[in-house]
Design a protein that fits this description.
4-stranded mixed beta sheet, 4 helices, 18% strand
Length: 126
Amino acid sequence: MGAAYAKCFDPSGARYGVPTYPWRLAPEGLCTRRQLRARGLRPGGQPVAAQVMRINRRTGGPRVAFLYREELAKPVRPMTSRKWGALALAMLARRTCPACHRDVGYCIPTSLGMCGQCLSTSDHAA
């Protein structure tokens, strides 16, 4: 057993306070938030059941992902019409150029702060 594996293997939870498993070696029935979401589920307020840990080779520090019990997970709440509307307005705001006030059809990079056409005209003026 390697040293990194030994640091990450604590199924009793004595060292970290919660059962800890090495990366990709979690027992069946435990899922991360992303895995739950891919199955159409959410944690639903349940406490963390375990964690998977991996030692970062560059920094030497651990990377941790929390695990939840799949049988206690609840289905994802459906989007309401109000949420869809709020999302549409937020995306419209990201696509609207603050300089020319047009919907340019793509999300404007925050690093530029304006659409490509306004950026090219401001470069020629400078």
